[in-house]
Design brief:
Strand 2 and strand 3 form a beta hairpin. The model has no long low-confidence stretch (mean pLDDT 82). It contains 2 helices and 5 strands. It has helices at residues 9-20, 77-100, and strands at 29-33, 37-39, 45-47, 50-56, 63-67. By secondary structure, it is α+β, with helices and mostly antiparallel strands.
Length: 110
């Protein structure tokens, strides 16, 4: 399933716009697939499926998106997604705070 997102920038932005109800212009954004590996609380490696950072020329901060694929029944997927996203938020804050140099608010949304 991950290979479906290894397409052209135009197609990828169109898919993400559709999935997340956004309106990014492929000509005005930079999209990068970011780190998906983290240490869990037992220091084992956990891997999310896909994380993207979209930088829009018109936006102050980048946008971050996470796609997770469930191919078999797993009642713990919600907990895993929360763990991946928590780890990613900590990583993003550490990386972006240095570049922002400010104390701006962190916004989490669905």
């Amino acid at each position: 399933m991950k290979h479906l997102f290894g397409v052209s920038k135009q197609t990828l932005v169109t898919m993400l716009n559709s999935l997340f109800n956004e309106d990014f212009d492929p000509e005005q954004v930079e999209i990068v697939q970011t780190n998906s590996e983290f240490d869990d609380f037992n220091f084992k490696i956990i891997r999310g499926d896909l994380f993207f950072r979209i930088t829009d020329e018109m936006a102050v901060k980048p946008f971050h998106y996470h796609l997770e694929f469930q191919t078999r029944r797993d009642r713990l997927i919600g907990i895993r997604i929360f763990e991946y996203d928590f780890k990613k938020a900590v990583e993003n804050e550490r990386l972006e705070k240095n570049s922002r140099g400010d104390d701006s608010e962190i916004v989490l949304s669905r």
